[in-house]
Q: What sequence folds into this?
């Protein structure tokens, strides 16, 4: 069984394309093309389900047309509309640190060198040039800059990022 902590979100299936089960896929991370993985994971009715690629081709730098095994008709493809797409972290770990996207770190714990444990990353806001980790701490949402120069240590095994945050940042 695929667990939510073993995958991270890379995009969403928008709609069917044509009548043979092809799907329009909008992605935030093209990791599926950069590593040797033959499948993606889709959230179907609350369950993480693997789907193997038959083929895919890029339409732009953020969209692709994908054909998945077992999805062969327009009706089957329609059932995939607005389904979130995830990628297994184990395959993403084959990449070097510099090749990972920020979304890979959802679920990691942030620690500050001075303050200790800050919170767990629940999401990443990369809608502006200044990418932010969105953390949950004491039922509050905190925003922390996702900047490499603030990261002191990254431990993929324990899923902990140690940062040296500017003094007073968390009290804003």
A:
């Amino acid at each position: 069984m695929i667990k939510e902590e073993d995958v991270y979100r890379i995009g969403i299936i928008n709609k069917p394309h044509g009548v043979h089960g092809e799907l329009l896929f909008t992605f935030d991370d093209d990791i599926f093309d950069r590593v040797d993985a033959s499948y993606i994971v889709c959230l179907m009715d609350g369950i993480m389900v693997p789907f193997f690629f038959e083929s895919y081709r890029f339409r732009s730098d953020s969209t692709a047309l994908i054909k998945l095994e077992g999805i062969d008709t327009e009706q089957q493809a329609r059932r995939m509309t607005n389904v979130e797409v995830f990628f297994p972290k184990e395959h993403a770990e084959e990449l070097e640190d510099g090749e990972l996207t920020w979304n890979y770190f959802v679920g990691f714990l942030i620690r500050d060198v001075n303050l200790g444990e800050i919170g767990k990353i629940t999401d990443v806001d990369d809608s502006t040039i200044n990418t932010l980790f969105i953390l949950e701490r004491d039922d509050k949402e905190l925003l922390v800059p996702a900047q490499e120069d603030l990261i002191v240590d990254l431990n993929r095994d324990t899923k902990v990022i140690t940062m040296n945050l500017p003094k007073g940042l968390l009290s804003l």
Notes: The CA atoms of residues 21 and 76 lie 7 Å apart. The first strand starts at residue 7 and ends at 17. The radius of gyration is 18 Å. The first helix runs from residue 31 to 34.
